[in-house]
Design goal:
It is a single chain. With 82 residues, the protein is of the alpha+beta class. The chain has a single domain, classed as Fe-S cluster assembly (FSCA) (GMP Synthetase, Chain A, domain 3). The protein is built from two helices and three strands, in the order αββαβ. It has a three-stranded mixed sheet. Helix 2 links the parallel strand 2 and strand 3. It comes from Kaistella antarctica.
């Protein structure tokens, strides 16, 4: 399979994963934005109340990363960028 097509499919799966958790983040006054997918790493930016929240690390690892890996098993980690 073409590497470009594979990357596009991964990005689509990651976006679907983020959409599935967005309502939970918005409920707490936050949001999430996909910055980039680099190989097996996803870069996201937290917005609103999620940005700098003391719980944001566990939100990222337990919520976001777990969900992204369910949608796109090829992803190994999700990192928050500023």
């Amino acid at each position: 399979m073409n590497k470009e097509i594979k990357h596009e499919e991964t990005v689509t799966k990651v976006l679907d994963a983020l959409e599935s958790i967005r309502p939970f983040l918005k409920k707490d006054g936050g949001d999430i934005e996909l910055i980039d997918v680099q190989g097996q790493t996803v870069l996201v930016k937290l917005h609103g109340n999620c940005n700098g929240c003391p719980m944001s690390f566990s939100t990222m690892k337990l919520g976001v990363e777990t969900t992204v890996k369910q949608f796109a098993p090829e992803i190994l980690e999700v990192l928050a960028v500023e």
